Automatic annotation (TrEMBL):
This is Mechanosensitive ion channel protein. The keyword Membrane applies. The chain crosses the membrane at residues 14-35, 90-112, 133-154, 160-179. Its main location: membrane. Keywords: Membrane, Transmembrane, Transmembrane helix. PANTHER family: INNER MEMBRANE PROTEIN (PTHR30566:SF25), YNAI-RELATED MECHANOSENSITIVE ION CHANNEL (PTHR30566). One of its GO terms (biological process) is transmembrane transport. The lineage of its organism: Bacteria, Bacillati, Actinomycetota, Actinomycetes, Kitasatosporales. It comes from Streptomyces tateyamensis.
């Protein structure tokens, strides 16, 4: 801090203030530049580690910490108590911001490293969900601690906190009852993340609507529906009510197509057509397929074609393609197989 002392030697307070601010700005920018260059060199020396790129996002909060720390350390620069208190608050907020960014960068680095080495997509989805939830929990805890420390810098807040210690039990009960829904969602989110009941990327059916889990937070879960609408559901729903998870263990599904056809339908020819259609389709996984007559009425038969696909999205595409192809085949090759309405004329 020798340059602070040398600037203090200037008799003109305005000039001393300008020189000090200029020095603080220069040191702050230089610190950010040096840290960024160091991280770039570390990334170049160790390209296999994904940690360095996320850490570079910590540059701005680090510069805030450095700038406020230098301003507070400058002798006689900030003599006004209110202004000095404001700088302390900014420094605390910047420190909390920096800790959040560092923790997020570490977790992102762990996830990126796992993505490059994991061979199991289901396990990767589970780790992504758990790390995302852990990141939100850590960020929330850091924010709460930072705000508490900032409040303790106020004399009135310290006095009030000491007087409330005697009634902390009653206040805890009241707060627990008032925040019952919030706390329930919070613990439900933790349970979902670490019990592996639903993960980011899973295909689920909620209240009769199918979609893909897009985001899991501490209080709600976002499901992207087939028409790109977003269904926002409280996380407590997934621990208190039944729901369908189509991809929890294996993303592969069995698709089925129902056709109502005439009794004259050539079922063996239709079965052969299904085999040819599946063999030419990129959505079929090559494992299972079948075509059976599953029901009959006085006027029609019900033919069910089943086939397997690798994922729910490919299941939908395969089902639609098979339905279109079989109907087109019957219309052109066997029009007598299409359902028709039979009537009888009464004599006389």
């Amino acid at each position: 801090m020798g340059w602070f002392v040398s600037f203090h030697g200037y008799r003109d307070p305005v000039l001393r203030l300008l020189l000090t601010l200029l020095a603080v700005t220069a040191v702050t920018l230089a610190t950010g530049w040096l840290v960024d260059r160091s991280l770039q060199r570390a990334a170049a020396r160790h390209p296999e580690s994904p940690l360095w790129a996320p850490l570079r996002r910590c540059r701005v909060p680090l510069q805030f910490v450095v700038a406020t720390g230098l301003l507070l350390a400058a002798p006689h620069l900030v003599d006004d108590p209110d202004l000095r208190h404001a700088l302390v608050l900014v420094a605390l907020a910047a420190t909390g911001w920096l800790v959040v960014r560092v923790s997020a960068a570490v977790l992102d680095g762990v996830l990126l490293r796992y993505e490059t080495s994991a061979g199991d997509p289901a396990r990767l989805q589970r780790v992504r969900t758990q790390l995302g939830m852990l990141r939100r929990v850590v960020s929330a805890l850091i924010a709460v601690v930072t705000m508490a420390v900032m409040l303790l810098t106020f004399t009135a807040a310290r006095t009030l906190g000491a007087s409330l210690l005697a009634s902390a039990g009653i206040l805890g009960i009241v707060a627990g009852v008032a925040a019952q829904g919030t706390l329930g969602n919070f613990f439900a989110g933790l349970q979902i993340a670490f019990s592996d009941t639903v993960r980011i990327g899973d295909t689920v059916v909620v209240e009769g609507q199918q979609g893909t889990v897009e985001e899991i937070t501490l209080s709600y879960l976002v499901v992207r529906l087939w028409d790109y609408r977003r269904l926002v559901v409280p996380v407590s729903y997934f621990v208190s009510k039944p729901f369908e998870n189509w991809t929890r263990r294996d993303p592969g599904l069995l698709a089925s197509v129902l056709l109502h056809l005439d009794h004259a339908t050539p079922v063996p020819a239709l079965r052969e057509r299904l085999r040819e259609t599946l063999a030419a389709s990129s959505h079929w996984d090559g494992q299972e397929w079948a075509l059976r007559v599953v029901d009959a009425t006085p006027s029609t038969i019900v033919v069910r074609a089943t086939m397997t696909a690798r994922s729910p999205d490919e299941t939908f595409e395969l089902r639609a393609a098979v339905r279109e192809d079989l109907i087109a085949y019957l219309r052109t090759e066997h029009p007598e197989a299409l359902p028709r309405l039979r009537t009888t004329a009464e004599e006389g």
